[in-house]
Write a structure and sequence with these properties.
The protein is mainly β. The protein has one domain: Maltoporin, Chain A. The protein contains 5 helices and 38 strands. It has a 22-stranded antiparallel barrel. A hairpin with a 3-residue loop joins strand 11 and strand 12. The chain is globular. The two termini are 46 Å apart.
């Protein structure tokens, strides 16, 4: 087990850095005060305060993309099966609920998978990456997210942003929490299956010091047998204004979760969905996680129009996952051995960013320059769980450790070429590497591997044209990449695959047609080289060459009457293999599996300041495939169509959610929620049928009731 001295070193380094910045700020304060105070205040509020204190995403970048920005009012006051469900408020998002309690769901943005076993989309919470490899590569444990504390969330689609490199080829989801103010919030929920959710937020500004505290305590028995889940979240943020020129902040976060899971249901057994699938010993799938995060940043205003931001973060995680042997089926009566997966994941990072917002040649202009560094260190061990013994460790099957390092240089500028035309140009250069040790290698075998040292330049460009005051036309291009899987043969050895590279082209428009109607439409095409997919036949990740994705996203928002809001969006998307295939199956020209062709959302809301209000939301995903392969396989094996169908369609997903609430005043609200009102049997993880026509699946929760109480003062 790795020693955790890095955390103390990080804090010492951060304190030294803060002392340096504070000294610099105080030395410059006298000179700054010679400026007109009123001018300084106005200019700072218009220019610098619009620049995010992390030196990351700014509004200028988002304007030339189809990104969705969700505010506090969009995500608070709702009930979610998982916190990640909030991103379905953006067009083109699909989510796979595993139905395994504390196991985080997976999701797709424009056909790129993330969250559970892939690294195509990155996610940040207050500047700290949420991903780890505790259960699978690029795993995003979104159970750490507390909706009550969210200030804003950006859903950036494709590799459009210059601020994110590795793991952002399919998009980025940065979340910012509330940093100050004077507010207190308490949300209480009790629902079916003994669902208990208590969350609170306390924020105070006291002169130069801002303090924010948030916590959540959650428990559910689960709608299936043996599917309980307990989690606790806590966070604290302290910001201090040392001078007019310098502000610093410290963020701390803790997360704990424990759960049991009922397992996946073999279709051939025709079981009641509430039944638990175990190994015959009375023990069940499950897991536990403990994670602690810390981040320190300093923000130095160099002038009314420029600032320097420095930050450092660290995170430590211990993860255990029990997956017991598969339950026998009619066609496969012999039980299989399960596994215990244990990981310790430590990571830290730092960065420095310069931001300028002013004018060049009497035209509005911005400039961002930055550099970032991150390192992840992980120990991974696996044990077999013999059939019938439950969570009793058997022989060790894996014992490895690895490091991943990434250094990035970034730059971006925007310029108002003409009054209606704004140009954005940028790029980033990433250096990646690492080392891998196999502690179970046989005597004389190679046990130490070194990554080949990847380097990649990612250009970005965007254009915003405003022919009329209420209409914006935008277009952008972005190049992105993702690294191969974390195994000795795929990542570190001389046979390592090349980077997966993606290029996105996007054209769209936003229009405020009237004071009560907003429209948005965007069309995109994404081309991928050196793509990698999982081949169930060989149980390995294999290259599939080039892929193509394209689609159309539409949304409309209506406010026809006071306090009424109607919103609907529809996405049509296609995802295809252009050429090549796995070693056993020819995928050329065939659809990429598990990508829904159609996604639609509609919501009607009546939200008066007092009295009775509510929301009615409908969601539908359809026309995805589980298998789409040619009849003749590459190795000369012709499958029996009756036993192994070549084309298998996934079940469509349809849900209706209802909320009624009564607002007594601005501070107190009583809420009543029903999720999955029509009690649809929506399937989550769906595996393609095997040679016997069997597959296992999970189901999203059936109709669920919640009664809640919100206080905001």
């Amino acid at each position: 087990m790795r020693k955790k001295r890095w955390f103390a070193s990080l804090l010492v380094s951060a304190v030294v850095g803060l002392f340096f910045f504070t000294s610099t700020a105080l030395a410059d304060e006298t000179a700054a005060k010679q400026n007109d105070p009123k001018l300084k205040e106005d200019e700072a509020s218009v220019t610098l305060r619009e620049i995010d204190v992390r030196g990351t995403v700014r509004r200028e970048e988002l304007e030339s993309t189809s990104a969705t920005v969700l505010g506090n009012e969009d995500v608070v006051g709702r009930v979610y099966n998982q916190p990640l469900d909030m991103i379905t408020l953006s067009p083109g998002i699909s989510i796979t609920q595993y139905g395994e309690s504390g196991v985080a769901p997976a999701f797709k943005i424009r056909g790129f998978s993330a969250g559970h076993g892939t690294g195509d989309v990155t996610m940040y919470l207050d500047g700290i990456p949420l991903h780890d490899n505790g259960h699978a590569t690029g795993y995003l444990d979104t159970g750490m997210i507390m909706p009550i504390e969210i200030e804003s969330m950006e859903i950036i689609k494709g590799p459009a942003s210059v601020y994110y490199g590795q793991r952002a080829a399919g998009g980025a989801l940065p979340i910012q929490t509330i940093k100050g103010g004077d507010r207190s919030r308490l949300n209480l929920r009790y629902g079916s299956n003994n669902n208990i959710d208590t969350a609170a937020l306390l924020a105070r500004d006291d002169g130069k010091l801002s303090q924010v505290y948030a916590f959540e305590i959650f428990h559910t028995d689960g709608w299936r047998n043996h599917s309980d889940w307990n989690k606790q979240n806590g966070s604290g943020r302290w910001s201090y204004v040392f001078s007019d020129n310098f502000t610093a902040s410290l963020n701390l976060r803790a997360y704990n979760a424990q759960w049991d899971s009922a397992g996946y249901l073999p279709r051939s057994m025709n079981l009641d969905p509430k039944e638990a699938v175990d190994d015959g010993s009375g023990q069940y799938n499950g897991g536990k996680r403990d994670r602690y995060d810390g981040r320190l940043w300093g923000n130095l205003f160099l002038s009314e129009r420029s600032q320097l931001t420095a930050y450092a973060y660290g995170t430590t995680l211990e993860h255990t996952r029990w997956q017991l042997g598969n339950m026998p089926t009619i066609h496969a009566p012999a039980p299989t051995t399960g596994s215990e997966q244990w990981n310790e994941h430590n990571s830290y990072g730092s960065g420095l960013t310069y931001n300028y917002k002013g004018a060049w040649a009497e035209r509005d202009a911005t400039l961002t320059l930055g550099m970032t560094y991150s390192k992840e260190a992980e120990d991974r061990r696996r044990w077999r769980l013999p059939w019938g013994t439950g969570r009793v460790r058997g022989s060790k099957s894996e014992d490895v450790s690895f490091d991943i390092m990434n250094t990035g240089l970034l730059g971006e500028a925007t310029w108002q070429i003409l009054q209606p035309l704004n140009l954005r140009l940028g790029g980033r250069y990433d250096f990646m590497g690492g080392e891998y040790d196999n502690h179970m290698a046989a005597a004389g075998a190679q046990s130490h591997f070194k990554a080949p040292g990847y380097k990649e330049f990612s250009p970005k460009a965007g254009l915003v044209y405003t022919p009329l005051e209420r209409i914006n036309i935008f277009m952008n291009y972005g190049h992105g990449f993702s690294m191969p899987g974390l195994s000795a043969t795929q990542y570190y050895s001389g046979n390592a695959y090349d980077l997966t590279k993606r290029d996105q082209y996007e054209l769209g428009s936003r229009a405020a047609v009237t004071d009560w109607m907003d429209l948005e439409i965007s069309y995109y095409r994404i081309y991928t080289r050196n793509d990698i997919t999982y081949d169930a036949t060989t149980n390995t990740n294999e290259p599939i060459g080039k892929t193509r994705r394209y689609g159309l996203e539409n949304s409309i928002t209506l406010r026809p009457l006071s306090h009424w809001r109607l919103h609907a969006n529809y996405t049509w998307q296609e995802a295809y293999n252009i050429n090549n295939g796995t070693a056993t199956v020819d995928n050329s020209g065939r659809r990429i599996t598990t990508v829904p062709r159609h996604i639609a959302n509609a919501e009607m809301a009546y939200l008066p300041p007092e009295g009775l209000g509510g929301r009615l939301k409908w969601r539908w995903e359809g026309s995805a495939l589980l298998r789409d392969v040619s009849a003749v396989q590459r190795d000369g094996i012709t499958p029996n169509p009756a036993a192994t169908p070549n084309r298998v369609k996934a079940k469509n997903i349809s849900t209706v959610d209802l909320q009624l609430h009564y607002r007594f005043n601005d501070n107190i609200k009583l809420v009543f929620d029903i999720l999955n009102l029509m009690d649809q049997e929506n399937y989550g993880s769906q595996g393609a049928p095997n040679a016997f026509g069997d597959f296992t699946y999970s189901m999203q929760p059936p109709r669920t009731f919640y009664l809640g109480f919100d206080i905001d003062w």
